[in-house]
Structure to design on (121 residues):
């Protein structure tokens, strides 16, 4: 698989993780039935993909330019992207929300790197 295709699949996968977590933890209807969780995941995926495109794509391009795409850089940049995303979305300084989005970003960065790494070899 080409490196660009692997990166695309990595970005798609990285957006799934926060959307799935938020859909299960905070479904939009307030009910945790299958239909509500799936619909919430679909809605949350759009916003996660936008955040990935805004923060993740430029970061990946810079890291790729300097040959620094590693698991630890993906985790660190993902954590930073998660923190920036919650800061851009709300003015609420709730430490729990900040930590949740930072950890989701870090996990999404690791997932991106895992998919990218397997796909490019």
């Amino acid at each position: 698989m080409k490196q660009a295709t692997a990166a695309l699949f990595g970005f798609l996968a990285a957006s799934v993780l926060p959307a799935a977590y938020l859909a299960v933890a905070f479904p939009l209807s307030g009910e945790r039935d299958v239909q509500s969780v799936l619909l919430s995941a679909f809605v949350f995926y759009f916003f996660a993909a936008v955040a990935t495109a805004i923060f993740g794509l430029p970061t990946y391009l810079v890291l790729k330019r300097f040959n620094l795409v590693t698991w630890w850089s993906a985790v660190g940049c993902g954590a930073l992207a998660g923190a920036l995303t919650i800061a851009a979305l709300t003015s609420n300084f709730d430490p729990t929300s900040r930590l949740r989005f930072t950890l989701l970003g870090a996990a999404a960065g690791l997932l991106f790197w895992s998919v990218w790494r397997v796909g490019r070899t």
Notes: The CA atoms of residues 63 and 73 lie 8 Å apart. The two ends are 7 Å apart (CA to CA).
